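Recap for those who missed Tuesday's class. We walked through two folding examples back to back. For each one, the amino acid string is listed first and its predicted structure tokens come directly after. Nothing is annotated here on purpose, so try labeling regions yourself before you check the end of the notes.
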Amino acid sequence: MLSNKQMNMTHINLVAVLLLATVTVLFAKEPETLSAVGGQKIVKEFYDSGAIKSINRYGPDGALIGILHHNEQAVAIYAEMYDGQLLAGKIYYYPNGQPRIEERYDVQGMKRIERRFDEHGQLISETQ
């Protein structure tokens, strides 16, 4: 059986956790929508910390063109490029922002080209 002091501490801890959760939800940054060249649209999404989570680019017709994904430290980790509904390619990045691996896919989703780069952006290998 818990003492009154233990019950009060448990209650205080519960209230603190609920308050922190509420504040986090209240101050989480909402997605931002921006206009871009040629009628394109950019939507930025954020982690609860406020760091950028992803940047989505849409064509004038509303079709997804690409998504740039970031880790919780707002460092780009990979990008997806689309051709209509189809995934056309991916690029994985080094922490310094240079491309690490570039992959291109055909209309069946099969990888057709893979390029690997060093941390300075120099091509190391290419397979087709």
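Example two. Treat it independently of the first, because the proteins are unrelated.
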Amino acid sequence: MSRRHLLLSALAAIGAARPLPPLSWSCPMHPEVVTDAAGSCPICRMALVAVRLDSVWSCQLHPDVTKFAAGRCPIDGRSLVQMIKAVSFTCPVHPKVVDVNPG
């Protein structure tokens, strides 16, 4: 088993232990527009897209550093700050394929 496969399996196991946040709907052009049902943006009338929003802890200078609990950035040691981020799943073989549901 490759090192990459082991890493992906470990990340999947961590994600499986944490329940998925509920689906919300947001405008791609106006991310401040968030609703609990599909529809259109009240500002630009674009179709809202499904998103899963979760409260996480992240480094302000290294946004790829995301944790589910408070702590310190492993890169620069700064305190992580709590924020809302969209949860998505990316195909390891086709990185342009992104979905709000695992699998």
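Answers for example two:
DSSP finds one helix and seven strands in the chain.
Confidence is low (pLDDT under 50) at residues 1-10.
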